[in-house]
Write a structure and sequence with these properties.
Length: about 325
Amino acid sequence: MRDWIGIDEVVAVADTGNFASAARALGRSTSHVSRAIAQLEARLGGEIFHRTTRSVTLSPLGENLAGLFRRLVEDRNEAFEWAEGGGEPHGELRISCSTTLGERFVAPIVREYAQRFPAVSVLMDLSNRVVDVVGEGYDLAIRTGHIGDPRLVGVQLASRKLILCASTDYVSRNGMPSSAEALDDLDCIAGSAQHWQFRGEHGNFFYKPSARLRCNSGIAVLDAIVAGMGIGQLPTFYLHGHLVNDLVELLPHLRVADEPVWGAYAKRRQVTPKLRELLTMLATSLKPALDPPASLSHGAEPAQTNAYLPLPTV
């Protein structure tokens, strides 16, 4: 195995940006990573990384080698996985997803996946923290909106709809807003997003609510809205399983276009069988699970009116 010494370590440092993160991703010590790379540099007669006390960057030699080494590692791992699993999904699969989306909709699909492919062990990390997929060694992250990380590629699995809503009791006491600016005079209940999204005549725009209550839990925001404390903007999937007969949608004519839900994973030449099968199941099952009732998901564009619309039960 002498010919492989340092190759995994170079790829891990190039992907994560430092030796400590690379060591965590590989499950090895930082000293092991440093020693392996030093041995490879000595063998090649040149520096792969420029090291300072503040940063680690690829040298010109490292720039050329990192991509080649990455393909070697991926091909090797895929070959082993295929051989050990007889061509079937095999090994560990690490998944990251936001808490509510994961608990309610992704976890049941993953459970079915695990039952179908018993040779795969699954680790699900349900948190609203945006993980470093490459640096922390995740196989898949399920995210909404813009992926952002150029090291990742995304497959759209579904979409989510954002609506502004309040209880009928709150509306009867405070009236209906006719514009986003009218929200300044009403009670707003905000989640972790700093801005609410709307679509006007000239495109999308943002509104920053002066929140009476702010919480990073969508469930808590929904509970406050249902209790009549104020107005909030939420993805419709939060309404699944809740009694929402007493909620109404506000400003439907300003409702923003649906946001994509992505399955994001590290760029590679081929997707492993275990990941491919999960993406297939998610693409098949997640969209119908997240879709709101037909009146919200398949109807015409929201009417240009300020009349409020009851949210149907789910």
